[in-house]
Amino acid sequence: MENEFSEMKGVRPSNEELRRRVEHVKSIIVHHPIYMTVLEELEMRFALGNDSLTSECLYLYGPTGAGKSTVIREFVSRYPPFSKTSEYSSVPVLHVKVPLKATASSLASKVLLDLGYPFPTRRTELNHVRSLIMEREVKMLILEGAEHLNSKTINWVKTLIGEVNIPVVLCGISESMWMFVNDPQLNRLFTNKLELAPFRYGNKKETSAFLGFLHVMERQLPFAKPTNLTEKTIAERLYYASLGVASYLMQLMIEATICAVNDGDDSIELEHLNQAFERIKLISRPFIVNPFALDDFELEAELKREKGNNFRAS
Ligand SMILES: Nc1ncnc2c1ncn2[C@@H]1O[C@H](COP(=O)(O)OP(=O)(O)OP(=O)(O)O)[C@@H](O)[C@H]1O
Ligand SMILES: [Mg+2]
């Protein structure tokens, strides 16, 4: 066992201990193959952009909860700002979260703020943004929340890209792909498009990637005894419940940990996953059944049943 969590032997520990174990689960990050592909792509774009003649742009997309922010956070943490002079810091990777319903001026203000210039602006300030990007020696710009851009802010971003000549990563949920449909110029800037897709459970390769994720997870769970997530009966139920989206898997793990610790149990069992599932409401899947409450569970049949119900209801 890789962890330092002692046996509870049926006795519920203190809330402090519960908190420690839950925080441990929240801190687990699995470096699964798709995650690593994105991380390596970011590294490569960063390296290629150094003193390049043209910007090395990348569009990173995926469904909500797939792990885009998580992987970006890890990449950005590798290049923290550092003091250059007593007056300003160098910011190798500028990570900006696009404000909700962004306008060109609110986006410009946010970029300036993240560059350490805390004075809001009413204007679009492209010149100011450009000179601060150069002054702070920014080597890559990451704009997260592409779904909050509209045609005006997209134009602002395009102009900025043309002026700064550094790699720009635009990141958003899959639906933000619409941006490229009506804007061939933007599409040309972001020819490189990379999906952080959810896990699939189909062919051998896909299934083994999903089982790999569960394996890393089960080894790090904060319990004295091993939990078996990779056993077919559990893994298929977990896949059905999450459809391979990392955030749902993590929510289940967090809630199941709470249930197990509250019962003083030393591993996560089917019953804890059953209770955990009941606590998490998946609004987007009205016909989902609790797979952990079923004695017999057949992944394909249940997915088919859900699809049929969705079709009849539409
Ligand atoms: N590789 C991973 N290992 C462990 N947990 C992960 C991983 N990727 C994502 N998660 C879990 O999923 C949650 C959601 O991830 P994240 O916020 O990165 O998704 P996102 O793709 O940015 O979603 P959104 O489009 O809604 O912003 C994280 O808080 C974390 O719990
Ligand atoms: Mg995110």
Verbal overview:
- There is one protein chain.
- The protein is an alpha/beta fold.
- The chain folds into 2 domains: 15-29 and 199-313, no CATH class; 33-195, 3-Layer(aba) Sandwich (Rossmann fold), CATH 3.40.50.
- 49% of the residues lie in helices and 9% in strands.
- The protein has helices spanning 15-26, 33-49, 68-77, 104-114, 126-135, 151-164, 178-181, 184-189, 204-220, 232-242, 246-262, 270-279, 299-313; strands at 58-62, 82-83, 89-90, 93-97, 140-144, 168-173, 193-195.
- The strands form 2 sheets. The chain has a 5-stranded parallel sheet with strand order 4-5-6-1-7. Strands 2-3 form a two-stranded antiparallel sheet.
- Helix 1 packs antiparallel against helix 11, helix 5 packs across helix 6 and helix 10 packs across helix 11 (246-262).
- The chain starts with 14 loop residues before the first helix and ends with a helix.
- 34% of the residues are buried.
- The site of adenosine-5'-triphosphate has 17 residues, from helix 3 and helix 11.
